Amino acid sequence: MLKNVFVSSALTISTLSIGINSLVLKPSRAVELTDGRRAFESSLNLTRAAANFNSRNNSAARYQFTIEVPEDAGEALKSVKITQKENSDTVIFKTDKSKASLGSSLSGDNIPLAAVGGESQPGETTVVFDTPVEPGNTVTISVKPKQNPSVDGVYLFGIAAYPNGENSPGLYLGSGRIHITE
């Protein structure tokens, strides 16, 4: 009787292992909406927001935003929109100074940008990758303000990610915080 329980348990574990491996090996697919647009299957993660210089009015400052595109995202990351939340001072981005690289810092492989700016307004910019960032990768985007705000405080930047495809809905990832000091 005990021997049969062991064999039965071994078969169950073996079956579960095969089932799990089958799930892991299947490629993930993006969500297709009823109107044909595509959306991410799983949320991307805003993991870091930082400024290299935090002092007021500093014209050498760069803001970096790091985003993880998980394996199960189902769709590649095509563009990112950065929008400053209302505050006492508004940042104006120098779109020609934006860059991106693979990894959690700018020391990774450079990612060419197809466009930067779009229909930008003060406090807003959109970065479009020439080649979309595939699931399983991390990307760091660096944007350059004309200068840091003249008023110290915490500045919030809403980050929205967009998958490959026409008029695809964005996915709001949250707000990155940049602290400006005296």
UniProtKB/TrEMBL annotation:
Name of protein: DUF2808 domain-containing protein
Organism from which the protein derives: Waterburya agarophytonicola KI4
InterPro entries xref list: DUF2808 (IPR021256)
A Pfam family it matches: DUF2808
